[in-house]
Write a structure and sequence with these properties.
It is a single chain. This protein folds into 4 domains: 111 residues, Alpha-Beta Plaits, CATH 3.30.70; 338 residues, Peptidase S8/S53 domain (Rossmann fold, 3-Layer(aba) Sandwich), CATH 3.40.50.200; 159 residues, Glucose Oxidase, domain 1 (3-Layer(bba) Sandwich), CATH 3.50.30; 100 residues, Sandwich (Immunoglobulin-like), CATH 2.60.40. The strands form 9 sheets. Strands 5, 6, 9, 10, 11, 12, 24, 25, 28 and 29 form a 10-stranded mixed sheet that branches. The chain is built from 21 helices and 38 strands. It has 819 residues and is of the alpha/beta class. The termini are far apart. A hairpin with a 5-residue loop joins strand 20 and strand 21.
């Protein structure tokens, strides 16, 4: 321990000494040509150890290692001495073990000279070290597995336009700033316009934001629109639209700061993509389909490449015989016809089946996952018991224990019940003299569930009363309530488990002395709140979030099952840090903040939209169906620990539990961005294929298809499962049914071995068992499904195609057998 302390002090000296000497300089990290010690294979000054020798049995004190280390160090010093006068720079470290290079504190002018010096491979300004980045780009492998192949994060999504049909945008947010980026040139093929902000008289665009319009005619006609509250412009008064846009296309490396703490750096999936805003959602009432359809239409006309929809209907449409035929889905079908890829949030009706609000096969429906980052905290009571909860806050001062005082005992006037003082929303109702220096114990009222109460207000109350911290205890079960950690500056925690809240309250009551009237005379209960700012990482990720809507998909208002797998894919959607608008009202805990950590399939969809932009950048000629296929056939059904994906569910007692996930939870699986850029084979589909699908839906009215899509059905009728989609679903399987799939090779000529796996109730066979697909060529696969036993539930399986060049293509299968 003493040794570590000494090392820490040395680091402090190294960091601060140059600043004292040189004032306004910066620290730079320089990588040099030449191998570091671990990969060196000999050839300098008699040093001849091989890289394997060093990696497996390295003695850093050996003469050979020491010799090579000194050689590298001398080269670093010689380079600097040749460039700069002694005393004008400070070399902080020589790196020689894992990288060959050094860090230097110097002026920007000298750094520029150094960057061009012979032997310098790479140089960058040093960044502050943080506990964790925020976080899904790293979780999905983008910085190392995807962005470098496209020229780095500063080229990821270059010239791809993502349209956001949402609640607008806060244009001044650093996630959309152009101050520290390469200039955005004109993009003539995008034809959108930028509205002028009626307050600032400036337009909303800056090159990064390439279009900004709002749509409210239906809302105005309905009498729901209030221009003083809802902003008659693309300005985001809610927060939702700013959040989703930054997830997909926000700038890279934006510090997420709240309450004096930095929670990492935020980045979009495609940081260089352009943002086109189509505002249709408003603060108080949501939005109207008419406005949404107008926005979608405008976006397609303007020339967006990708469309993100974190919006959807409240329930399946009742005016048509099938969910696939309504103005909303028809508009999206036209968008796909125009070559626009559409990602849509699946809905937040989980964990119950048939709760999806995104139905059609031409849309990519996204389910929400919990990633590997979990914010948990605990309190330690004076009797030694530890109680866990949610608390994204610092610890109590000095990790000390402080006496507890209940808000119930600190009321100034118990007779005034207009407001509930127990939820600690109004400090003027509580006695400061009793609360100051103590931890205040608050109750979780129904006002938190459906009113305006927030953990942020509890924190502000505690701070204004001089409390050492706060505890909010949930004493009653609120079925379906989703508890999320909230970042606050005051030490605090939310105890969500009712049984643990009872332990806490019993301890408090037993330890508090009272007079004969019941008034407290002394507070003996004590507790300390631990530091909850650092997340805990879990390998059991991703998991399907409990709120994420589940399949099966439905084909009509009577909730009959469709022969379409929904959702399509799983992406992070729980506790997602991203940009926020300071005047946003969507989350009470983030009013006035520039960032928010929000959950929902609304957050999952822009992850897919951003990754689709990266695919479109690499493969500009691919159709929306090809992009969807690349995402789905390369998705994984395993978590980061190598185990099958699990889904959060509620037990009979409303306790959160985990169950094995199925394709009705996650679709084809969790998105794998790196694999999706190089899928090997794709299953493509055209607009005509989607019309044929519509015409094959049982009981569909061909005239309705003609009326809504403008395209007539031909005389031949197949089955919905004949659509060349990257999944197979048969909701009513009788005897044996054969379906075909056509795959196209988008890589080099490759030979694939085809295997199948299926639950025993249904036999699954695919032929041929092996095939060679030429580069650019296509082959057909015949798939037969046969009922073996009738169980009344779905069976799941997959068709796996393994290529001799390393590609793995997986088609998910779901079927329910009938006698």
């Amino acid at each position: 321990m003493m040794k570590m302390k000494g090392m820490y002090l040395s680091c402090l000296i190294l960091v601060f000494l140059p600043l004292l000497v040189f004032g306004t300089g910066h620290v730079y990290i320089v990588t040099m040509e030449g191998e570091p010690v671990v990969s060196y294979s000999g050839g300098v000054e008699g040093f001849s150890a091989t890289s394997m020798d060093l990696a497996e049995d390295m003695d850093i004190t050996s003469e050979s290692v020491t010799s090579y280390t000194l050689h590298l160090q001398k080269k670093h010093d010689a380079l600097l001495d040749s460039l700069f006068e002694v005393g004008t720079y400070k070399k902080l470290y020589s790196y020689h073990h894992l990288i060959n290079g050094f860090s230097i504190h110097t002026s920007p002018e000298q750094a520029e000279v150094l960057s061009r010096a012979p032997g310098v491979k790479y140089m960058e300004k040093d960044m502050k070290v943080k506990k964790l980045t925020t976080h899904t780009p790293q979780f999905l492998g983008l910085p190392t597995g995807v962005w470098p192949t496209g020229g780095g994060f500063d080229r990821a999504g270059e010239d791809i336009v993502i349209g956001f049909v949402d609640s607008g945008i806060f244009p001044k947010h650093p996630s959309f700033s152009t101050h520290n980026s390469e200039p955005y040139g004109p993009l003539p093929r995008y034809r959108g316009r930028c509205e002028i902000d009626p307050d600032t008289k400036r337009d909303f665009c800056n090159g990064k934001i390439i279009g900004a319009q709002h749509f409210a005619k239906a809302a105005i006609a309905a009498g729901a629109f209030n221009p003083t509250i809802d902003f008659a412009s693309p300005m985001d008064g809610d927060g939702h639209g700013t959040h989703t846009a930054s997830i997909a296309a926000g700038n890279n490396g934006i510090p997420v700061r709240l309450h004096g703490h930095e929670f990492g750096r935020a980045s979009g999936m495609a940081p260089r993509a352009r943002v086109a805003v189509y505002k249709v959602l408003y603060r108080l009432f949501g939005g109207y389909v008419s406005d949404v359809v107008a926005a979608i239409d405008q976006a397609v006309r303007d020339g967006v490449d990708i469309l993100n929809l974190s919006v959807g209907p409240n329930s399946p449409p009742s005016t048509t015989k099938t969910t696939f035929l309504n103005p909303f889905d028809a508009a999206l079908l036209s968008a796909v016809k125009a070559g626009v890829f559409v990602a849509q949030a699946g809905g937040n009706g989980g964990p119950f089946p048939k709760t999806l609000v995104s139905f059609s096969p031409w849309i990519t429906t996204v389910a929400a996952a919990v990633d590997d980052r979990r914010y948990k905290n605990h309190i330690t009571l004076g009797n030694g018991k530890m109680l866990s909860g949610l608390g994204l806050s610092p610890s109590t001062h000095g990790n000390r224990s402080y006496n507890l005082v209940s808000a119930n005992d600190a009321m100034l006037d118990p007779s005034v019940l207009k407001f509930n003082p127990l939820d600690c929303q109004r400090p003027e109702l509580l006695n400061r003299n009793m609360v100051e220096g103590k931890i205040i114990l608050c109750g979780y009222s129904f006002n938190f569930v459906s009113g305006t109460a927030s953990i942020k207000k509890v924190s502000e109350t505690a701070k204004s009363l001089g409390a050492a911290g706060f505890i909010v205890a949930v004493e009653n079960s609120y079925p379906g309530t989703k508890f999320d950690p909230v970042p606050v500056s005051t030490p605090g925690i939310l105890i969500t488990d009712v049984s643990k809240s009872k332990v806490l309250i019993d301890y408090y009551n037993c330890s508090t002395k009272r007079d004969w009237t019941g008034r407290p005379t002394s507070f003996q209960a004590a507790a300390s709140i631990a530091d909850g700012l650092a997340p805990v990482l879990h390998n059991s990720a991703p998991q399907v979030a409990v709120f994420s809507s589940r399949g099966p998909d439905v084909k009509d208002f009577s909730f009959q099952d469709a022969d379409v797998l929904k959702p399509d894919i799983l992406a992070p959607g729980s506790l997602i840090w991203a940009a926020w608008t300071p005047n946003g009202t969507d989350e009470a805990n983030y009013c006035g903040e520039g960032f928010a950590m929000v959950s929902g399939t609304s957050m999952a969809a822009p992850h897919i939209a951003g990754i689709a932009a990266l695919i479109k950048q690499k493969h500009p000629q691919w159709s929306p169906a090809a992009i969807k296929s690349a995402l789905m056939t390369t998705a994984t059904t395993l978590d980061h620990g190598g185990k099958p994906l699990q889904a959060q569910q509620y037990s009979e007692t409303e306790i959160m539990t985990l169950l094995p996930a199925t394709p009705f939870d996650f679709g084809s699986g969790a998105v794998d961005p790196k694999a999706s850029l190089n899928p090997g084979l794709i299953l493509d589909a055209s607009y005509e294929d989607y019309i044929s699908f519509l015409c094959s839906v049982p009981d569909v009215d061909p005239h309705e298809i003609l009326n809504i899509t403008g395209t007539a059905c031909n005389s031949t009728r197949g089955k919905p499962s004949d659509l060349n989609s990257p999944s197979i679903t048969v909701s009513h399987l009788e005897g044996t049914q054969t379906v075909k799939r056509r795959v196209t090779n988008v890589a080099e000529t490759e030979t694939f071995v085809i295997t199948t796996r299926m639950s025993p109730e249904v036999a699954l066979e695919a032929s041929p068992s092996a095939m060679t697909v030429l580069a650019g060529g296509s082959r057909e696969i015949s798939v037969s499904l046969t009922v073996r036993s009738v169980t009344g539930r779905y069976s799941f399986g997959e068709i796996l195609m393994k290529g001799n060049r390393g590609h793995k293509v997986r088609i998910t299968v779901a079927a329910m057998g009938y006698p």
